[in-house]
Automatic annotation (TrEMBL):
The keyword Ligase does not apply. Transmembrane segments: none annotated. Pfam families: F420_oxidored. GO terms for molecular function: oxidoreductase activity. The keyword Transcription does not apply. Residues 2-81 form the Pyrroline-5-carboxylate reductase catalytic N-terminal domain. InterPro entries: NAD(P)-bd_dom_sf, P5C_Rdtase_cat_N, STEAP_metalloreductase. Keywords: Oxidoreductase. This is Pyrroline-5-carboxylate reductase catalytic N-terminal domain-containing protein.
Length: 201
């Protein structure tokens, strides 16, 4: 599959490397292309089956505009709308909307799937290093497009789980906040993820 990753930072590199290793064709949309697998945002998005937003949350409106609105695209949203509020890292837009929904409003003709936002970047590219597949949830409104995103998440080594409609991005962004709080404030370190286990009966 042709995947355009907008932003070649910690997240973009981690998932891009994983998908390239899985046989996908990965191009990075960046502001100053310098490598063979980089181009500007507009051509990267235009030529891709799936466009991944892996930039800071604050850059999302600029990225959507630079990408020409993303009409008809399956868009994977990895961003977390983080802000330091009262000295604590929190969701900048509170719990009554989400980054995923905000992106969908900015790109109304795209199909947005929120996923790959719930763990630290090194785990996004290193899911196969865990003793069992970590879970990664995906929320989106279009079942067909979400299935594509779930397959791509699975290709990174995750147990990819449908988390319902895009409004559930609110849950997934809160889950990211829990991971960040555990990693940075509770001494868990960054080399952990969540797995789903079931009772036999
Ligand atoms: N880091 C994590 O562990 C982690 C985990 C899950 C989700 N997230 C979320 O994922 C997103 C990316 O995080 P990150 O840690 O990868 O950030 P990062 O390392 O700071 O990288 C962000 C990238 O976005 C690029 N960028 C900024 N504005 C852009 C624009 N207008 N057009 C194209 N590229 C642009 C930057 O390019 P320049 O070099 O040109 O500035 C940079 O390469 C954030 O929303 C974050 O909350 C992060």
């Amino acid at each position: 599959m042709k995947i355009a990753i907008i932003g070649r930072g910690a997240v973009g590199k981690a998932i891009g490397g994983g998908w390239a290793a899985a046989g996908h064709q990965v191009v990075y949309g960046v502001r100053a292309p310098s490598a063979a697998d980089e181009t500007e945002t507009a051509p990267a998005a235009a030529d891709a089956d799936v466009v991944v937003i892996a930039t800071p949350w604050s850059a999302v409106p600029v990225v959507v505009a630079a990408a020409g609105g993303l009409a008809g695209k399956t868009v994977i949203d990895c961003t977390n709308p983080l802000a330091l509020i009262d000295g604590r890292l929190q969701l900048a837009i509170g719990h009554t909307t989400s980054g995923g929904e905000t992106l969908a409003a900015l790109a109304p003709e795209a199909s947005v799937v929120k996923t790959l936002n719930q763990l630290g970047a090194e785990n996004l590219g290193g899911a196969r290093r865990f003793p069992a597949p970590p879970v990664m949830f995906a929320a989106g409104d279009d079942a067909t497009r979400k299935a594509v995103a779930l397959r791509l998440v699975g290709d990174l080594g995750f147990e990819a789980i449908d988390a319902g409609p895009l409004v559930n991005s609110r849950l997934l962004e809160s889950l990211a906040m829990l991971w960040i709080d555990q990693a940075l404030a509770r001494g868990a370190g960054r080399a952990f993820a969540y797995a789903r286990i079931r009772r036999a009966t």
